[in-house]
């Protein structure tokens, strides 16, 4: 068995929910892609006492204790978080940290990887399976939404062309919805109209995925732009506008004028 292991996981972009109408027996469904950066990087080692250092240490320690108890593991550990994806920035920081800690613990003790089980134990993937599947495989993935409390099925996984570039525009003074506030926001919104749900699904199946297969970045960006417009209008009552931050809305306006999409 190892004395120490390192785990690295990349940020992800959640590009949109497929079905917010909740009328077809499945809920949500998602499309998303992994990024090269930022990343969560941590090292877990055997130790005489449990010590957790670095960014988001308190949350990481809770994950460590929860998974260790679930797996029936004894002994102490030293966990060092060298870098972490920024929290509440829409990049999947919570899921990547949780699964990274669980993965490190399993590897250190010679146990097989099981991100799906770890996600359930740690309360991840309740709406989207994107972060879980991207942790495992990277690339671009589509999940089929929840039919019950189980994780959604993986419908597609594609390799994103290496020369594609993503421009991240963030507002460090603004935090997105998360946790209880996010749940309350979802609960207060009506079902999305069927015609818009059907439009999103068509954009994913007949434009976004073919664009990845054919290395057509403009077409992919146009599909994401329209999906985001529909989603922004839907979430506007909960987040105070089509975008969560006025500064980001302004920056995106300038970017759009310059010809960018997404």
Quick synopsis:
The chain has 262 residues and is an alpha+beta fold. The protein contains 8 helices and 6 strands, in the order βββαβαααββαααα.
Structural features, described:
With 262 residues, the protein is an alpha+beta fold. The chain has one domain (4-257): Ribosomal Protein S5, domain 2. The chain contains eight helices and six strands, in the order βββαβαααββαααα. It has helices at 57-71, 93-108, 115-121, 130-137, 179-187, 194-213, 217-239, 246-257, and strands at residues 4-19, 28-47, 51-54, 76-83, 140-143, 154-158. Strands 1, 2, 3, 4, 5 and 6 form a six-stranded mixed sheet that branches. Strand 3, helix 1 (57-71) and strand 4 form a beta-alpha-beta unit. Helix 1 (57-71) crosses helix 2 (93-108) and helix 6 (194-213) packs antiparallel against helix 7. The radius of gyration is 19 Å and the shape is globular. The mean pLDDT is 91.
Question: Key terms for this structure?
Answer:
alpha+beta; 262 residues; Ribosomal Protein S5, domain 2; 8 helices; 6 strands; 6-stranded mixed β-sheet
């Amino acid at each position: 068995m190892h004395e120490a292991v390192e785990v690295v996981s990349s940020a992800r972009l959640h590009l949109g929910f497929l079905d917010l109408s909740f009328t077809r027996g499945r809920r949500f469904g998602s499309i998303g892609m992994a990024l090269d950066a930022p990343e969560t990087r941590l090292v877990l080692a055997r130790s005489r006492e449990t010590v957790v250092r670095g960014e988001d240490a308190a949350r990481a320690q809770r994950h460590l204790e929860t998974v260790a108890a679930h797996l029936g593991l004894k002994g102490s550990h030293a966990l060092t978080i060298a870098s972490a994806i920024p929290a509440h920035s829409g990049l999947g920081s919570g899921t990547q940290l949780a699964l990274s800690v669980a993965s490190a613990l399993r590897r250190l003790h010679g146990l097989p990887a099981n991100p799906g089980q770890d996600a359930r134990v740690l309360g991840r993937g309740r709406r989207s399976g994107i972060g879980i599947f991207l942790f495992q495989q990277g690339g671009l993935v589509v999940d089929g939404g929840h039919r019950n409390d189980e994780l959604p099925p993986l419908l597609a996984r594609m390799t994103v062309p290496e020369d594609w570039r993503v421009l991240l525009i963030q507002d460090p003074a603004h935090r997105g919805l998360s946790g209880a506030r996010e749940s309350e926001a979802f609960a207060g919104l009506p079902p999305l109209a069927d015609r818009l749900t059907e439009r999103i699904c068509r954009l994913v199946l007949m434009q976004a995925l073919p664009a990845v297969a054919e290395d057509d970045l403009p077409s992919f960006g146009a599909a994401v732009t329209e999906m985001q417009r529909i989603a922004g209008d839907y979430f506007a009552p909960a987040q105070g506008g089509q975008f969560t931050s006025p500064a980001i809305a302004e920056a995106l306006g300038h970017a759009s004028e310059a010809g960018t999409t997404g």
